[in-house]
Amino acid sequence: MKLIIQRVSQAKVAVDNQTISSIGKGLFVLVGVKEGDISDQAKVLAEKLAKLRVMADGAGKMNLTVSDVNGEMLAVSQFTLYADTSGGNRPSFIQAARPEVAQPIYEKLVEELKNLGVKVQTGKFGEYMEISATLDGPVTIIMES
Predict the structure, then answer these.
(1) What is the mean pLDDT of the chain?
(2) Choosing from 80, 85, 134, 140, which is the catalytic residue?
């Protein structure tokens, strides 16, 4: 599993020109699931993500969690995180898990974050989404299991 985590001042997801999710200050998280990943990995990453101290404190230092600042997370599945371009210019997605495998693992990550008290919004699995985000910092972290 791979997470691309970006600190944002706002982010939103639209499907068919309709906003389906939006957050203010917090973390925008792209979630990639690869073949062989299991739901236990989602639990471990959720715990780590909930404790990730990348939000600014009063001195502007990355010292607080998203919950510490009453922030939110927007988690969006993205199979293209496992693109392989080593064989040419057209990406191969053979490493990405099939939707029937990836969706329950993605949903487990979201469920675990909520169980940890994190406010979480989501994209719509398997749909074409238009995403806008205002990066804060910018701060981008890659987390992988």
Answers:
(1) 97
(2) 80
